[in-house]
Write a structure and sequence with these properties.
The chain is mainly beta and about 260 residues long. It has 2 helices and 22 strands. About 10% of the residues have low confidence.
C-alpha cells in the first residue's frame, strides 16, 4: 500500500470523524494555536537523488537515511557536501527514519519490521532489531527512542533493548493528527513532518498535544522538484549551536532556518 493511498484514507477519516460540535465548549480553537514562519539563515547543497526519509545532525556532520527498494542508504557528510560516506541497505529493505544515539545511528525500515543499528563512525552494521508496526520517523530525548509509524501515535522504546515502553497520541484541537512522519527532538519538544503537508508540528512529548505549527509552504513551493512524493521531509538539529536544518525528498538544497512567530 503506497503512502499516497494512506494519505487519502487518512484525510477522509480526519475530515469525516471530527466536527466543530465534537469539541468541548472550553476547547480553544485551532486558529489560536501559534503559527510560525521562518527565515533562511544559510543554504547548503543536497543530493537531488536522495529520497530523504530520516535526517540528523551530530558533531559537525549530517546523517541522512534514504528510501526506495534497492536504493535505500545511510549517508554521512559535512554541510558543504564533502566527506561523504554511505552504505546501502539490503535491497529488500525500504529505509526510513534515523537518529544518532551515542556512538550509533539507529535506522528504521518501512514495512519489514526491522531496525538497523550502525556504527556512527564507520557506518558498519552492528545489529538488527524488530518491531511490530510500520517504521516512519525516529528521534530521541536522551532517554527513549521516539518512533512514528504513520498513525497519530508515537512509541517510546528503550535505546538499548529496543523494547516498547509507552505511547502517546498526538492531538490538535481537531483530534488525532494522522500521518506523522519524520521526527526531531528540539528543546524539549518533538517536531514532526506530516506526510504530504507543508507544515511541521511541534508536540508536547508528555501529553501529545500539538503546541504550534511551522508554515513552510513557501519553502516547499520554491524547493520541491515537483514530483508527487518530493515533499518536505527532513528536520535536523544542531544542539551545540542551536541550528535547525530542513530539506525534502529529492531537493537539491538544504536550509538552515530560524523560526519566527507569525500569529496566534
Amino acid at each position: 500500500m503506497s503512502k499516497c493511498f494512506l494519505f487519502f484514507i487518512a484525510l477522509l477519516f480526519h475530515c469525516s470523524s471530527v466536527s466543530c460540535s465534537d469539541l468541548p465548549d472550553n476547547e480553544i480553537s485551532l486558529k489560536s494555536l501559534p503559527v510560525y514562519s521562518y527565515k533562511i539563515v544559510a543554504t547548503y547543497p543536497h543530493n537531488p537523488e536522495s529520497f530523504t526519509q530520516g535526517f540528523a545532525y551530530d558533531n559537525g556532520f549530517l546523517y541522512e537515511g534514504t528510501g526506495l527498494y534497492g536504493h535505500s542508504r545511510l549517508l554521512c557528510y559535512s554541510l558543504n557536501g564533502d566527506d561523504v560516506k554511505s552504505t546501502y541497505l539490503p535491497s529488500h529493505l525500504f529505509g526510513e527514519g534515523i537518529t544518532v544515539f551515542g556512538d550509533r545511528v539507529v535506522q528504521l525500515t518501512w514495512k519489514a519490521g526491522i531496525g538497523i543499528v550502525w556504527d556512527k563512525k564507520s557506518l558498519q552494521m552492528k545489529r538488527l532489531f524488530s518491531y511490530r508496526s510500520d517504521g516512519w520517523g525516529l528521534t530521541h530525548d536522551d532517554q527513549w527512542l521516539i518512533m512514528s509509524d504513520g498513525s497519530s501515535t508515537l512509541a517510546f522504546l528503550n535505546p538499548t533493548t529496543f523494547t516498547f515502553h509507552h505511547r502517546i497520541t498526538v492531538t490538535d484541537n481537531n483530534g488525532p493528527v494522522l500521518l506523522i512522519n519524520e521526527l526531531e527532538y528540539i528543546k524539549g519538544e518533538i517536531w514532526a513532518n506530516i506526510w504530504k503537508d507543508d507544515q511541521i508540528i511541534r508536540i508536547n512529548p508528555l501529553t501529545g498535544k500539538v503546541l504550534g505549527r511551522i508554515d513552510l509552504s513557501a519553502l516547499t513551493k520554491a524547493s520541491s522538484p515537483g514530483g508527487g512524493e518530493d515533499v518536505l521531509n527532513g528536520i535536523a538539529y544542531d544542539r551545540k549551536n542551536d541550528r535547525i536544518f530542513i530539506t525534502g525528498k529529492r531537493w537539491d538544497k538544504l536550509f538552515q532556518i530560524k523560526i519566527i512567530e507569525r500569529e496566534k
